[in-house]
Amino acid sequence: MPRKVLIAYETRYEATEGTSEEIAKALRGEGLDVRVVNASFELAIISR
């Protein structure tokens, strides 16, 4: 079973999203199961 990694980011100008996706790509290349989420968006859904 692959190890799981969660990358949670928050961004104003979308630069952090791209960086998070690049990190995820590198980790996936090492065989890890990676999920990338926008923390602000996820919290907005949970708060409803």
Explain how this protein is built.
The protein is an alpha+beta fold and 48 residues long. The protein has one domain. 50% of the residues lie in helices and 25% in strands. It contains two helices and two strands; from the N terminus they run E-H-E-H. The protein has helices at 15-29, 39-47; strands at 4-9, 33-38. A two-stranded parallel ribbon has the order 1-2. The relative contact order is 0.28.
Write the layout of secondary structure elements.
Blueprint: E1 4-9, H1 15-29, E2 33-38, H2 39-47
Features:
48 residues; alpha+beta; 2 helices; 25% strand; flat
In short:
This protein has 48 residues and is of the alpha+beta class.
The ordered H/E elements are EHEH
- The total of beta strands comes to 2
Strand order, sheet with most strands: 1-2
How far is the first residue's CA from the last residue's CA?
34 Å
Largest β-sheet summary: 2 strands, parallel
> DSSP helix count?
2
Unreliable sequence segments: none
**How does the helix and strand content classify structurally?**
alpha+beta
**Rg of Cα set:** 12 Å
Mean pLDDT: 86
β-strand amount:
25-35%
